[in-house]
User: Which sequence fits this backbone?
């Protein structure tokens, strides 16, 4: 039992990670390491499902999602890449259209 000390949810259901959290994940592709922004989708026991935020780099839908143990050394908190000098592949840029209404009060 000591050899298989896995981080799991405790009886109260608390953990250090929650669905919806943003993280940074190291992913090796063609012998080159990339650091992606990922979103935690689901947690079950000691496993977490992660989705890569920038999907424009992959042609295969299966590469968007990854299942890793909670104590994986490939997943880090936001800001880790900048602190350690790695280039972070940021998520797709979102455009927000803000509609404004101006009223001429002096007519």
Assistant:
């Amino acid at each position: 039992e000591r050899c298989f000390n896995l981080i799991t949810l405790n009886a109260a259901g608390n953990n250090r990670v929650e669905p919806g959290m943003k993280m940074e994940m190291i992913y090796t592709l063609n012998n080159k390491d990339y650091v992606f922004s990922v979103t935690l989708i689901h947690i079950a026991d000691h496993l977490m499902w992660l989705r890569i935020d920038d999907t424009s780099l992959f042609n295969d839908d299966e590469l968007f999602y990854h299942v890793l143990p909670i104590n994986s050394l490939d997943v880090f908190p936001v800001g880790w890449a900048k602190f350690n000098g790695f280039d972070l592949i940021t998520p797709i840029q979102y455009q927000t259209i803000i509609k404004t209404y101006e009223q001429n009060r002096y007519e």
